[in-house]
Amino acid sequence: MKQLVLSEWLLTQLSQNKFPKRMPTHRRIYEAIRQAISDGVLASGTRLPSTRSLSDELSVSRNTILAAFEQLLDEGYVAAQTGSGTYVAYNQPDGFSKKPISTATIEPKPQDDAGLSRRGKAAAGSLNRQSHEVQPFTPGEDDYSQFPTMLWRRLLNRQWRAPDPSLLDYGHAGGYLPLRMAIAEYLRVSRAVNLTVDQVLITAGTQQSIDLCARLLTDHGDRAWIENPGYWAARRVLEVNGLQLHPVSVDNEGMAPSTKDFRATPKLIYTTPSHQYPKGMVMSYGRRRLLLDYAESRKAWIIEDDYDSEFRFEGRPISSLQGMDQNARVLYMGTFSKVMYPGIRLGYLVVPPNLVTSFKSGLYELQRPGQVVIQAALADFIEEGHFANHIRRLRQTYAERRKLLQKSLATVAEVGARLSPVDSGLHLVVEFDQEVDDVRVATMAAEHGLRVNPLSNYGIGEKREKGLIVGYAYAATENISKYGNVLANVIKAGLKNRTP
Amino acid sequence: MKQLVLSEWLLTQLSQNKFPKRMPTHRRIYEAIRQAISDGVLASGTRLPSTRSLSDELSVSRNTILAAFEQLLDEGYVAAQTGSGTYVAYNQPDGFSKKPISTATIEPKPQDDAGLSRRGKAAAGSLNRQSHEVQPFTPGEDDYSQFPTMLWRRLLNRQWRAPDPSLLDYGHAGGYLPLRMAIAEYLRVSRAVNLTVDQVLITAGTQQSIDLCARLLTDHGDRAWIENPGYWAARRVLEVNGLQLHPVSVDNEGMAPSTKDFRATPKLIYTTPSHQYPKGMVMSYGRRRLLLDYAESRKAWIIEDDYDSEFRFEGRPISSLQGMDQNARVLYMGTFSKVMYPGIRLGYLVVPPNLVTSFKSGLYELQRPGQVVIQAALADFIEEGHFANHIRRLRQTYAERRKLLQKSLATVAEVGARLSPVDSGLHLVVEFDQEVDDVRVATMAAEHGLRVNPLSNYGIGEKREKGLIVGYAYAATENISKYGNVLANVIKAGLKNRTP
């Protein structure tokens, strides 16, 4: 195919509008080129047009073309020859198929693990790689198409107009003070967190917050309690810090340590008491007291990860576990990724008073925080009321999507699946019986273009809970019912034909 | 002192212009209030005016007032009562004195180390806390007052005007492609790094780059070679990852492993071959070959930290160690902190081809990179030629400052100190004899308002090299000679009265 023809062909593909409505342009271009390669229309070795010329010919921003090329490059469909352009690769990726969307399983690439250490393999090796494709129902993604970029640009401009030199420096004192004050106020009022402003540290997000706690409060080989099922990203960070992970089951009251668990004294307890991740239960008052008393008796630290707390839809706001703690054993963390946009890389960690100086020092020594300009813009965003407005709008949108999804999935009860009634933030949980192969059901869903996560992926050990985690934040409201029905049919088909 | 009087008093202090010319306004306000507390003019318990009213009355941005308050708060001179303002603290910080600038020594605060783990104490404990005051001659600071903020604002605006959704997401593929391409081109041309664009990862800076290498390539307890004296921040990161640090001496050819060192096989070698940090020597060709051959024979990894490579002033650009390596054992890293501004938090890591997939995965899993909008603006900054211009201007400025400083320090030879002729980037090295107490000389300099680092701080073990590291990037050109003369006198006084 000559270069001229490729852009014409792409224009045709794009105008035929065969793609899901909310699929970004760069994804459509990626899919179209991928398909062209798959169909043999673009032969191996063919040189692709320059991104500038494609951008002109398609009347699409160069960024958009570049994003499409980036994904093709990254996945091995094309290769870049330095100085002479981009070519269709001779060695197409393993397992290449005509499926328009990658399945949920990952192809192992052993040669890339050569040289990794044990902890490196556990953290990043091929068996641990997650597909990052964002499609309807991908958990962990929020709808940042709703983010008010014009307003945000204005607030950033305000800072860059006459930047105080300290805005360009590393963050030295735990973060930009007005932002820490705004967070302290918000947490005090809405989450009953007990704090003064100097206890607030601004971090680069949840990974970094957990990492800092692990490094400053534990030593290699120490034990950490984690919820099972639980947040795998937290597991990854705790593991790479050399901690022994001790999984604790959950029940309808949240993290549920048994007598056996109590004998396995941890240095650190990682928990999500406001709504258990991923199952959504709120930790009961009794369970909270139990955990706090136990932590005090063993001088263990509790990390309270209060993710998505802004998006609870029913009932009163849940008070934090930290607010109930009289013994300064709880470190409380949150993030702005889901309310603002993921790339903002801003979160916060509230530490007990006696740890403030060490944590500020550790934050600087180990992580060199910065981006104070963005912190300043965010402080204004909160103080001027935009944050509250934005959350309110998001909550309305998400509540609507959640209702529609619940409705369209209701029929899965026919095959013995259970749609959990628990409000879990930005996803629903469909529970299966123990013998169901939830990975297989998820794969079937992926073949229909829907990316859901098997609940068993969130668990550790032999007997894992089975089900699907279905994110609804990312899918457009007008499509939810349609996709929901497709998913319901997949689940019903999958559970009818279950292999014992 | 009533609130009204404080602002009037501050106005008087500020207009009398008793402060160093380039001291930022927020620092002057901080110093003035600090002085008022010290002189008893502001009594304990006095409520300070609101930041808004001070901002109005002093005609100074609220950010500026907030920055001053932040430092007072952080250092304990004032305390914030939530909901009712900021007060002069009753318990003034320990060791409070009338000295206008903190000394180089740190007051230990044991209660804040309670609860820290062993590795936590090593990373962040009171004995390891560094003062972050930036004054003339502080090493590690660059002059970001020269940073073209108007231009940068324009480039950021361009991205925010019509942001591609992928700009708001996490960075998934190792970083924004156009930025990686620009870096690849720059490194290929100016540093003879051998790479294709997919080997480039964008990280949040040097700390994060080293951290990623340590986590993916080593296990707890593995041995790492470090230069002695060397970069303490790298040491800190390697240590917290559980590595056994093996210090290797340096000589005029750079890192100088002995027979004894060769028997202590490392998993990782951290080195600064372009100019040794902090002493500045260029690693000779023969030493490079030796290191590369050794690493290959032991299957060790070499981390080449090419800091400040843009600021070499004499001779031809130095080729990278990585470019000489035939065995894919070198990971090459650099940073934008010193050329752009420290808070930008962007650096890069070039990994061997067989590690690309693992490192991209590890980068996402462990660090969740983002800030793609800033990466995009930086890509334009480089592609449009502003980066090269900015470096050129900075080099001219720094070269001038370096010359002036060398001239004013020349007389230290009278007392046996040696001004190293080696071009070390953004600092000069003044070498002392072994028996000199360089910490004492640095403290004397601090009492004169000049913050330099003792060379012994950069070393490990019993017999450390002695001297001073004098940064010249931050001090204004018109002040260098004056400050340099003061420092020369301090050095001469310090070495004349040396205690054995």
Oligomer: homodimer
Figure out the total of helices of chain A: 17
From the alpha carbons, calculate the radius of gyration of chain A and give it in angstroms: 24 Å
Per CATH, the class of the largest domain in chain A reads Alpha Beta
Distance between the termini of chain A: 49 Å
Assign the CATH superfamily of the largest domain in chain A: Type I PLP-dependent aspartate aminotransferase-like (Major domain)
Biggest sheet of chain A: strands, sense, closure? 8 strands, mixed
Class by SSE composition of chain A: alpha/beta
Would you give an account of this structure?
The structure is a homodimer. With about 500 residues, chain A is α/β, with parallel strands linked by helices. Chain A has three domains: about 5-90, Winged helix-like DNA-binding domain superfamily/Winged helix DNA-binding domain (Arc Repressor Mutant, subunit A, Orthogonal Bundle), CATH 1.10.10; about 150-385, Aspartate Aminotransferase, domain 2; about 390-495, Aspartate Aminotransferase, domain 1 (Alpha-Beta Complex). The first copy, chain A, has 17 helices and 14 strands. Chain A has helices spanning about 5-15, 25-40, 50-60, 60-75, 120-125, 150-160, 165-170, 175-190, 205-215, 230-240, 260-265, 285-300, 355-365, 370-385, 385-410, 440-445, 475-495, and strands spanning about 80, 85-90, 200-205, 225-230, 245-250, 255, 270, 300-305, 330-335, 345-350, 420, 425-430, 455, 465-470. In chain A, the strands form three sheets. The first copy, chain A, has an eight-stranded mixed β-sheet with strand order 3-10-9-8-7-4-5-6, with helices on both faces. A four-stranded antiparallel β-sheet of chain A has the order 11-12-14-13, covered by helices on one side. Chain A has a two-stranded antiparallel ribbon with strand order 1-2. The longest helix of chain A is centred in the last third of the chain and has 24 residues, at about 385-410. Chain A is globular. The termini of chain A are far apart. Chains A and B meet through helix 4, helix 5, helix 6, helix 7 and helix 8 of A and helix 4, helix 5, helix 6, helix 7 and helix 8 of B. Chains A, B: In the C-terminal section; belongs to the class-I pyridoxal-phosphate-dependent aminotransferase family.
